Amino acid sequence: MDNRIKQTFFKYIKPYKKQAVLSILSNVFFALFSTLAFIVFIPLLEILFKEEKRQSISKPVWNGIGHLKSYLNAYVDYYWVNYINNHGFLGALTAIMVLIIIIILFKNLFNYLALYFMTFLRNGILKDMRNDMYDKIINLPVSFYSEKRKGDVITRMTSDVVEVQWASLIILEIIIREPLTILFSVIMMLLLNVKLTLFIFIFTPVAGFFISLIGKQLRKDSHIVQNFVSQFLSHIEETLTGLRIIKGFNAENLFTQKFKQLTYNIFKSNNRLVNRQNLAHPVSEFLGVLVIVVILWYGGSMVLDKELKPAVFLTFIALAYNILTPAKAIARAGYTVKKGMASVERIFKILDAENPLTDKPNAIVKDSFKDNISLEHVNFRYEDDNVLKDVNFKVLKGETLALVGQSGSGKSTIANLLMRFYDVNEGAIKIDGVNIKDMTKESLRSLMGLVTQDSILFNDTVRNNIALGNPDASIDDIIRAAKIANAHEFIMELPKGYDTNIGDSGNRLSGGQKQRLNIARAILKNPPVLILDEATSALDTESEKLVQDALDNLMTNRTSVVIAHRLSTIKNADKIVVMHKGKIVEMGNHQELMQHEGVYHNLIMLQSFA
What we know:
- By secondary structure, the protein is an alpha/beta fold.
- It folds into two domains: 3-351, Up-down Bundle (ABC transporter transmembrane region fold); 372-608, P-loop containing nucleotide triphosphate hydrolases (Rossmann fold, 3-Layer(aba) Sandwich).
- Helices cover 63% and strands 10% of the residues.
- It has 19 helices and ten strands.
- It has helices spanning 3-13, 17-39, 41-48, 68-139, 150-192, 194-213, 218-241, 243-248, 252-304, 310-351, 411-418, 441-446, 462-466, 475-484, 488-492, 511-525, 541-555, 590-596, 599-608, and strands spanning 372-382, 385-396, 400-405, 426-431, 434-435, 448-452, 529-533, 559-563, 575-580, 583-588.
- A six-stranded mixed β-sheet has the order 6-7-8-3-9-10, with helices on both faces. A four-stranded antiparallel β-sheet has the order 2-1-4-5, with helices on one face.
- β4 (426-431) and β5 (434-435) form a beta hairpin.
- α5 (150-192) packs antiparallel against α10 (310-351) and α18 crosses α19.
- The mean pLDDT is 80.
């Protein structure tokens, strides 16, 4: 069994060790009573075979542990013969029936208790694994998800976690319940007849070997299925997100064909996987019957030769079958574990993913902004592509710095680096002379408010969306922030005002309304530094005017870094940095750059004639 499965099992079972112990004990007693249920059939069969009454025999004498088997057999024989002689066959039959009922009652009681405690384990492991997955997902850097599809991550958190959950819990049956059932049955069989027991174990390993051959490809097949399911979920997510574009470009057939190809791939690979699993039952059934037939032949010959009582032989057959049943369960569990291994690999790719943006030991908690933000010889690249090259500038407290340039010039990358969504490759970004890598990420981001081009809102109320960065804010503070952001009026026109749910991604609101809620959120957070990443570029003229007024209110008495395509919005900036292919090509205020008649002047002229 793979060490990963074991490690996962023991890690997640630890918080529920009390339930685990109780489940194990219940399984021990279940296995014991399962075996006793067969043993009591020996006296029952003797009664039904109408064996003649024998004369009472004397109580056996204990002669030491070396004679344990003969002592136990003699004691049972002594007790049973005397009981039949004293109470008759009918009385003995009644006693056996009562004993069978009691044993079956306890067997099922302990089976229920084992499942009862197992429920806490199963659901607890599922909960804890998903919590760990979510913690990891939310703490990994943004760069991690540039390489992962959303659907793939969702699949790992849902179906993959369930597969690992079942694979882990199956281990409990493999190492406790089924082996104990086999052990108790073997002990009873040895006590009944050593010769026949040894004969059985010549054939049982052979049957197990053939059963194990079936599961070799399960892990590979399961991995293929999970990958197709990930693509399937990603395609659904992309379809729902881009439905307007799909319809607008008459691309319904293209996406439908792609979807049908994915469902066909899942259909084909699932058939292969399930059919391989389905093959296990008939093969194990046939091999089990084959073993029983051989036992019947060999044991039957012993009965005919008077070496074995018929009642003992039939009970022996039942015990042999009692071994085969858990053996088949262990084989099936092996298939589940192999299938779970594919999911383990996918989950651990996330859980084991290194986070390069971790806080240093003894990182500084920066709780104030006093003087300046500086970028010093900053270089940055995505993989092999250089995005920023030797970028240098400084923003003083209270200043507004604007970043302008063509798309792809590196403006938004600077915003991402300031928030430390990524780390610079060379150079440094400093706040008040302190490298942001030496600060805790939490304290760094608490100094900054971010308003992006894409209005990121959540499926929650207006109140909770505004209070995201300050969940303890009072309703009066939230209303005050909304008024500054020019959002209060339209909020009050919503069905439930601030308690209105705005739907998935805020889709019940217009673009301008969503952006004003984003600004209200930043206002309520009240950070000393603002980063505005093309906050008005996706709006119509009327919405842009309302949002720009809100931004002006937000920027008052704050240090701001503004990224904008529409240059009319940053003419009043204290400093304008002009970017081109990752480099700073010009820097100055509006008047200085216009007089220089360089790149900035050309951009202004182009927009003037647009």
